[in-house]
Amino acid sequence: MRVGDPITFLPDCWVHGQGSESVQARTGAVRGKVVYIHPKGRYYVAEGQVGGRTIREAFQIIPKN
Fold it and tell me: CB-based contacts of 44: which residues, under 8 Å, 6+ apart?
């Protein structure tokens, strides 16, 4: 994974005061891109468009054993 890579994610943030369940029902998965990766690989930030607005969300990177 690198900054700028395309990614599809399900938002878990609050949009217009509504929870993720209602956002997912309206939009489904969000297509976006990776905009930041923690220097030690602990998490990354994805950015995408929902309802004409840009959202960003952080996700933990879980190492594969």
Answer: 1, 34, 36, 37, 38, 58, 59, 61
Contact by Cβ (8 Å): 61, 46: no
Task: Retrieve residue 61's tokens.
Answer: 């990177």
Is 23 within 8 Å of 55 (Cβ atoms)?
Answer: no
Buried b (16+ CB within 10 A) or exposed e, 3-38: eeeebebebeeebeeeeeeebeeebeebebebeebe
* pLDDT tens digits, 39-57: 999 999 999 998 888 989 9
pTM over 0.85? The answer is no
For the record, the structure tokens of 2 come out as 């690198």
